[in-house]
Amino acid sequence: MTQMMPEPAQPEAGAVVTTDDDTVGVSQGRLILRRFLANRVAVVSGILFVLIAAFSVSAVGLGPIPGWWKYDFSTLNPQIDGGAPSLSLVPEWLGGAGLALGEHPFGQDRIGIDYFAMTMRGIQNSILVMFVIGIVGTVVGTVIGALAGYYRGLLDSILMRITDVFIVIPVLVIGAVVGRTTGGLGVLPLAFFLAMVSWMVIARLVRAEFLSLREREFVEAARVAGASDFRIIFKHILPNAIGVVIVAATLLAASAILLETALSYLGLGVRPPEVSLGLIISDNQSAFQTRPWLFWWPATFIVLLALLINFVGDGLRDAFDPRQKRFSLRRTKEKASS
Fold first, then answer.
1. CB 3.0–4.6 Å: which of 27, 106, 131, 285 could bond 116 by disulfide?
2. What residue stretches are annotated with the ABC transmembrane type-1 domain (predicted)?
């Protein structure tokens, strides 16, 4: 009698089938990196962001390091051609003036300061604020969320009630109070104090992850082995929640640029003699009708920086959560026709 062999189980519709060659010997970090690099939009956004940051630093320098641009963001200069931009991007064979930066490529403000130097300095300060708020806010939110989610009980109630108090108050209102108090101290103190009131969302996300992970078997095994609470939190649970932390930190950094811009525009953020993109727009808003380039350049970089960081955060979210698959019409048609 011939014994009938059972047919192999077919994968469900929409399931992701991976071969052993794709996963064997590959660490979780490499898998995350591979998925992130497969997202072209996120990779290009990250590269463009790094190039903009490097260009702004090399142009006007950073601290004692000088830049290659001959003007700075505070020196008064004689106005040339009414302060109009001298940047030319149209070749001569197309009827333009040729490819040239000119004396003041972004133009000059109403008192003669070079606008290219001011914009580059504003980009530096915006990126500095972004990194400080992103790092400090992430650290504070992660610690608070981890303690609340792991210990629960009374400590969880106290920390979450404090978080609720900060959440119900609009961030712009809190930032306005902080900016008015610390804006004159410089960019770094302003960014630090803004970070201290920007951790609430990350704290709630981390708490939710810890509430779930603390019940897993590997946590119980660590407790049985005699591991301390500190080691369990930061050596066992936190590495498994790092994906949520990184994605939330990226989104916090993107919102930090817009927060600093809004506060500086209202005169509650960065103060002269320092420069920020929002402060540049605020100082020149009265000249928008007669000199629109005073608004175009900083506004363009504000939107561009925020978009680039959001695209990078979107790519990191997809990389850390492989269940999120982008819909591809081309692939769907290919599968349907095959």
1. 106
2. 123-313
